[in-house]
Amino acid sequence: RWRTKQNLDYCFLMMYAQKKGVYYIQLEDDIVVKQNYFSTIKNFALQLASEDWMILEFSQLGFIGKMFQSPDITLIVEFIFMFYKEKPIDWLLDHILWVKVCNPEKDA
Protein backbone atom coordinates (compact mmCIF):
# COMPACT_ATOMS: atom_id res chain seq x y z
CA ARG A 1 0.00 0.00 0.00
CA TRP A 2 2.88 2.38 0.58
CA ARG A 3 3.61 2.28 -3.15
CA THR A 4 0.09 3.54 -3.84
CA LYS A 5 0.75 6.64 -1.74
CA GLN A 6 4.22 6.97 -3.24
CA ASN A 7 2.73 6.96 -6.75
CA LEU A 8 0.34 9.74 -5.75
CA ASP A 9 3.15 11.70 -4.07
CA TYR A 10 5.19 11.53 -7.28
CA CYS A 11 2.20 12.72 -9.31
CA PHE A 12 1.56 15.72 -7.09
CA LEU A 13 5.27 16.60 -7.07
CA MET A 14 5.44 16.41 -10.88
CA MET A 15 2.32 18.57 -11.25
CA TYR A 16 3.78 21.16 -8.87
CA ALA A 17 7.13 21.22 -10.69
CA GLN A 18 5.77 21.13 -14.24
CA LYS A 19 5.50 24.90 -14.68
CA LYS A 20 8.81 25.61 -12.96
CA GLY A 21 11.20 24.32 -15.61
CA VAL A 22 11.79 22.87 -19.03
CA TYR A 23 12.67 19.42 -17.69
CA TYR A 24 11.77 17.33 -14.66
CA ILE A 25 14.15 14.76 -13.21
CA GLN A 26 13.31 12.51 -10.29
CA LEU A 27 16.07 12.33 -7.70
CA GLU A 28 16.08 11.15 -4.10
CA ASP A 29 17.76 12.67 -1.07
CA ASP A 30 20.07 9.70 -0.51
CA ILE A 31 21.70 9.38 -3.92
CA VAL A 32 25.43 9.84 -4.36
CA VAL A 33 26.33 11.81 -7.47
CA LYS A 34 29.52 12.55 -9.33
CA GLN A 35 30.93 16.04 -9.62
CA ASN A 36 29.23 18.11 -12.35
CA TYR A 37 26.38 15.61 -12.65
CA PHE A 38 23.80 18.36 -13.07
CA SER A 39 25.58 20.19 -15.89
CA THR A 40 26.31 16.86 -17.63
CA ILE A 41 22.64 15.84 -17.52
CA LYS A 42 21.44 19.29 -18.55
CA ASN A 43 23.85 19.49 -21.49
CA PHE A 44 22.85 16.01 -22.65
CA ALA A 45 19.16 16.95 -22.56
CA LEU A 46 19.84 20.21 -24.41
CA GLN A 47 21.68 18.29 -27.15
CA LEU A 48 18.50 16.27 -27.64
CA ALA A 49 16.20 19.31 -27.64
CA SER A 50 15.31 18.85 -31.31
CA GLU A 51 14.80 15.08 -30.92
CA ASP A 52 11.50 13.42 -30.11
CA TRP A 53 11.98 11.72 -26.74
CA MET A 54 9.70 10.96 -23.83
CA ILE A 55 11.98 9.70 -21.06
CA LEU A 56 15.73 9.90 -20.52
CA GLU A 57 17.16 7.47 -17.99
CA PHE A 58 20.20 8.43 -15.93
CA SER A 59 19.87 5.53 -13.49
CA GLN A 60 18.68 1.95 -13.58
CA LEU A 61 17.20 2.22 -10.09
CA GLY A 62 13.42 2.30 -10.34
CA PHE A 63 12.09 5.84 -10.79
CA ILE A 64 15.33 7.55 -9.75
CA GLY A 65 17.11 9.47 -12.51
CA LYS A 66 14.19 9.56 -14.94
CA MET A 67 13.93 12.83 -16.87
CA PHE A 68 10.88 14.15 -18.70
CA GLN A 69 10.15 17.24 -20.73
CA SER A 70 7.71 19.41 -18.80
CA PRO A 71 4.94 19.30 -21.45
CA ASP A 72 4.94 15.46 -21.25
CA ILE A 73 4.26 15.47 -17.52
CA THR A 74 0.51 15.92 -17.99
CA LEU A 75 0.21 12.68 -19.97
CA ILE A 76 2.46 10.80 -17.56
CA VAL A 77 0.57 11.99 -14.48
CA GLU A 78 -2.82 11.20 -16.03
CA PHE A 79 -1.64 7.68 -16.82
CA ILE A 80 -0.27 7.15 -13.32
CA PHE A 81 -3.50 8.44 -11.77
CA MET A 82 -5.44 5.83 -13.74
CA PHE A 83 -3.28 2.92 -12.56
CA TYR A 84 -1.57 4.10 -9.35
CA LYS A 85 -3.08 1.22 -7.34
CA GLU A 86 -1.96 -1.45 -9.79
CA LYS A 87 1.83 -1.20 -10.10
CA PRO A 88 4.88 0.69 -8.80
CA ILE A 89 5.64 3.86 -10.73
CA ASP A 90 8.67 2.47 -12.58
CA TRP A 91 6.52 -0.37 -13.92
CA LEU A 92 3.88 2.15 -14.97
CA LEU A 93 6.55 4.13 -16.84
CA ASP A 94 7.54 0.97 -18.69
CA HIS A 95 3.89 0.53 -19.63
CA ILE A 96 3.59 4.14 -20.83
CA LEU A 97 6.65 3.66 -23.03
CA TRP A 98 5.25 0.46 -24.46
CA VAL A 99 1.91 2.11 -25.26
CA LYS A 100 3.21 5.46 -26.57
CA VAL A 101 6.54 4.58 -28.14
CA CYS A 102 7.29 0.88 -28.53
CA ASN A 103 3.93 -0.69 -29.25
CA PRO A 104 4.49 -3.10 -32.14
CA GLU A 105 0.93 -2.46 -33.34
CA LYS A 106 1.74 1.19 -34.08
CA ASP A 107 2.81 2.30 -37.53
CA ALA A 108 6.51 2.96 -37.96
UniProtKB/TrEMBL annotation:
Domain (MGAT4 conserved region): residue spans on this chain: 1-108
Superkingdom of this protein's organism: Eukaryota
Keyword entries, A-Z: Transferase
InterPro entries assigned to the protein according to its UniProt record, in alphabetical order: Glyco_transf_54 (IPR006759), MGAT4 (IPR057279)
Membrane spanning stretches: none
One cellular-component annotation, GO: endoplasmic reticulum-Golgi intermediate compartment
One Gene Ontology term of the molecular function aspect: acetylglucosaminyltransferase activity
Protein name: MGT4A acetylglucosaminyltransferase
Protein species of origin: Syrrhaptes paradoxus (Pallas's sandgrouse)
Lineage of producing organism: Eukaryota, Metazoa, Chordata, Craniata, Vertebrata
